[in-house]
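Lecture 7, part B: from sequences to assemblies.

Below are the input chains for today's worked example.
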Amino acid sequence: MQGEKKVLYSAVQPTNNLTIGNYIGAVRNFVALQNEYDCIYAIANMHAITVRQNPAELRKNTLSLLALYIACGIDPQKCVLYLQSHVPAHAELAWVLNTFTYVGEMERMTQFKDKSAKHADNINMGLMDYPVLMAADILLYQTDVVPVGVDQRQHLEITRDIAIRFNNAYSPTFTVPEGVYTKVGAKINDLLDPSKKMSKSAENVNGAVFLSDDRDTIMRKFKRAVTDSEAAVRYDPENKPGVSNLLSIYSAFTGRDIPQCESAFAGCGYGQFKEAVGEAVADKLAPIQAEQAKLLADKEYLNGVLKNGAEAAARRAGRTLAKVYKKIGFYQL
Ligand code: ATP
Ligand code: LTN
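Predicted structure of the full complex, as structure tokens:
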């Protein structure tokens, strides 16, 4: 486990059902990287409450995400898999890091601006502080690499800045992490508005394909996906955002590279192309959904995974927090 392997950390918020964007940009890579790295994966429920959540839904989505992680292939024996709120060190380190972060930096964050516009009635301090909590998550575990979708790049940059700032103010304390982004599918876009990222909390559910969608729903959503009038399956994100997005999805779900996918559909109409994309997605999701349902029926097992994960995470996080408290001058008994 720990030792020579580099530390990898990532998390997903248990808000709503995950989309194929979350799967391609994040979870799929978590699975692929678990043998090569010392992996820690969290369910970021403390981040989730920066937008108002229904408590019963949040609880349900938490277990559902845990089951999904495992159903997608994350092995709790190989990785630390835990719930953020089970490890108090996250909130504790976030408080300290707040004093190394400037208000102006947080105001400039794109996600904060987007979410403030979307939730204008609830621009709470937590929403603004979101990136600092994320920095605490990452820095607590002396993380080397963080696989995320490109929408999180700015948060990764600020995490690095905060780490460097702290290390310079005292002495090397935190590993400065690197973000890793997949080549294909680091940003999957909305099927109805391909200028926007596909999001779990999209206003129109027809623009997002959820990992929980059944085959008919998946086929229907792809059938309605926006394309263009050229009728050529060609990857050109600038001029053909809809078709290029569908090609990225097809490529990610079949493992074929973009040129291979383009030639597979040479001369094909969009109807046939969209049907093939839908089939590829539905085929891949069916066994994941079946496994997730099986896991959700065994709450005792899931609770056990969370308990082990919380213990392992708390042990590791505690070491970093103790170092930080000492350096900043918190009196120790
Ligand atoms: P919300 O819409 O509720 O803000 P989200 O869909 O952005 O949520 P997160 O929990 O914030 O989901 O993100 C989980 C992971 O999925 C992150 O690594 C994020 O970068 C990645 N991700 C989210 N949306 C996409 C997307 N459309 N394409 C690729 N990766 C994505
Ligand atoms: N903000 C992330 C979720 C997240 C995260 C993290 C990702 C919370 N803490 C630490 C990587 C590392 C998002 O994907 N929206």
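Note for the exam: The chain has two domains: 7-181+299-328, 205-293. Keep this in mind when comparing with the next example.
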